[in-house]
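hey so i finally got around to running the thing on that chain from the lab meeting. sorry it took forever, my laptop kept dying and i had to restart like 3 times. anyway pasting the input first so we r on the same page abt which one it is
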Amino acid sequence: MPALANVGDEDLLRRGRAARTAWLVLGLMLVAIGFIGIFVPLLPTTDFLLLALPCFARSSPRLEAWLLNHRRFGPSLRAWRAERAVPRHAKVAACIGMLLGFGTLWLHVRHHPLMLGAAGLFILFWAIWIVRRPEPEATR
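ok and heres what got predicted. didnt touch it at all, straight out
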């Protein structure tokens, strides 16, 4: 019977390693998309980095710490993690981005008022949600 217990332990270790690898790959992909967002208008950067944090928490504490201590993105990530707070400049940027995105949509689908209305309500909901988030303690 001990031999079977060892096989089960190895299987659990292998599954754990596979899960950590999957979380790591997903986290790296999200960081890559976030990096692309630095250069591509309307593609958010911080959102993808926020999604990468729990992936790294499950796979690589070193990469998680790197993100949290990053000179540019670390403060926003730490504020969200600690307080679910969004800095004012990020709120403004998000709302402007949503407005620009809706303007672009309006230019291309003017003849579909139902689609425009649905998209407008969706964007308005998220704009209100983000504006209502608290601001980080450090900026108050």
